[in-house]
Design a protein that fits this description.
The chain is of the alpha+beta class. 29% of the residues lie in helices and 27% in strands. The protein has a domain at 94-209: Immunoglobulins (Immunoglobulin-like, Sandwich), CATH 2.60.40. Residues 80-211 form the MSP domain.
């Protein structure tokens, strides 16, 4: 019995379509595999960074030290505020005689003792969170190991809330004879330390704020 005629072109066309479908399936599988691999890499990178981030933040709460590079000295870009009270004066070389005090309206200025408890000469610069409130003298200076100076703070208008004064300091390299202002202008951020002073308004409560 004669068989049904075979449409050769249709038969070939169907095979080609099936081949194209198989190719598309393989491409989809490759794309999916690549997507999963990429997602895995990103997750692995995040996992590697996260412990460092936690360590840096924990370190940053204990040590007043900063740099512009992640993981060096406890600074994570975007998460460090030199005036943040959480950054204590515990491990800095320059110590101040009074870290927190209440401004008394009867006073026009106050003197605080600044001591270098480190092992070498340090240069420093004094900055205020609001420069319109205070004048600090000296604004720049150097302190040898074991030596001290007096920081004179003059009020230009009484503070109405907690204001902060920051003493930036870094070690002086042997043989460096530049002026303090020039050394601080070209400072290495990774070597900076910050000593903080909080000035509270006269209405603030707290026995530890008295001068």
């Amino acid at each position: 019995m004669a068989g049904s005629p075979v449409d050769f072109e249709s038969s070939c066309g169907g095979g080609e379509a099936l081949l194209q479908m198989n190719v598309k399936d393989e491409e989809r599988e490759k794309l999916e595999a690549a997507r999963k691999a990429s997602s895995h890499d990103i997750h692995r990178q995040q996992s590697a960074v996260q412990p460092n981030f936690k360590q840096v933040r924990k370190h940053g709460e204990d040590v007043v030290f900063a740099s512009e590079r992640r993981g060096v000295g406890g600074y994570v870009p975007g998460n460090f505020d030199p005036f943040d009270p959480r950054f204590l004066n515990k491990d800095v070389a320059l110590k101040v005689s009074k870290e927190r005090f209440k401004w008394q309206d009867s006073l026009s200025q106050v003197k605080l003792k600044l001591t270098n408890t480190g092992k070498g000469l340090r240069v420093f610069k004094v900055r205020c969170s609001d420069a319109s409130l205070f004048r600090c003298d000296p604004a720049y200076g150097t302190l040898d190991a074991g030596k001290h100076c007096f920081l004179c703070i003059t009020v230009t208008r009484p503070p109405t809330d907690c204001s902060k004064i920051k003493v930036e300091s870094l070690p002086v390299e042997p043989g460096d004879r530049r002026e303090p202002k020039e050394m601080m202008a070209n400072r290495d951020p990774s070597k900076l330390q910050y000593t903080h002073i909080e000035v509270h308004p006269s209405t603030a409560m707290g026995a530890d704020l008295s001068l």
